[in-house]
Specification:
There is one protein chain. The chain has four helices and eight strands. The chain has helices at residues 17-28, 56-64, 98-105, 121-130; strands at residues 4-10, 31-32, 36-37, 52-53, 68-74, 77-82, 91-95, 110-116. The strands form two sheets. Strands 2-7-1-8 form a four-stranded parallel sheet, sandwiched between helices. It is globular and about 40 Å long.
Amino acid sequence: MKQTTVIALFGPSGAGKNMILNYLNDNFGFHRIVNSTTRPKRDGESDGVDYNFLSLEEFSAAVSRGEMLEYTSFREWLYGTNVNELEKNDINVGFFNIRGIQTLLQNTDIKIIPVFISVSDKNRLIRQLNRELEPDC
């Protein structure tokens, strides 16, 4: 049986994870993992494209049913990866936090390739300020 492969991008907010994820998807045809979250949509984001935006009740129910490969909290929001987001016969690419990667690394059915993304603090701040009308900095 072929092992599912996940390229797991991680790094600080505003480092460029989403830009790299989109580049890999657009230029190499990798399967883009759409993570789930309980945080509200930002301006310009779309449900099912940027994230699967769930209520706390929906997210909790998915966890209870064993549908989340990994999940964690960041600030007051929950983030996770639904098992149905992975394509078994494709290279999957998504972004995660370090706790999510640690959980995925324990799953022997998945080959995890962690990739740390870093950029200067100045560039991160500029990206964070530009992606929202009222950024939380």
